[in-house]
Amino acid sequence: MGEGPLTRVLSVCGPVPPGERTSEPLDDRLRDDAALAEIELTSRLMIAASGAAEPLSQEEIDGLLGIAPDA
User: Fold this and answer.
1) Which residue among 8, 25, 46, 54 is buried most deeply as judged by most CB within 10 Å?
2) Are 6 and 60 in contact (CB under 8 A)?
3) Angle between helix 5-13 and helix 33-51 axes, rounded to 10 deg
4) Buried-state track 19-33, b at ≥16 Cβ within 10 A, e below 16
5) How far apart are CA 2 and CA 55, in angstroms?
């Protein structure tokens, strides 16, 4: 497998270990896991796009978002 956007993102960000919190909110009642997940995905796309020499393909975007390719 070549040096694609996902590889570049993981080399910069590294994988997040299961169960590891990336930030500590002051009050867990205010925690919004859906919003945090969206922020994580958006961050990965921004990092990959900023390091790409040309626009990301739909396949690369799907890979970054964890979407399985059509069978």
Assistant:
1) 8
2) yes
3) 110
4) eeeeeeeeeeeeeee
5) 17
Here the tokens at position 43 are 């961050």
Query: Could you read off the pLDDT of 7-64 as tens digits, one per residue?
Result: 666 565 655 566 655 555 567 777 788 888 899 999 999 999 999 999 999 999 998 8
Task: Report DSSP letters for the chain, one per residue.
Answer: ----HHHHHHHHH-PPPTT--S---S-GGG--HHHHHHHHHHHHHHHHHHH-SSPPPHHHHHHHHTPPPP-
Q: How many whole angstroms separate alpha carbon 13 and alpha carbon 22?
A: 11
- Statement: the pTM of the whole predicted model exceeds 0.85: no
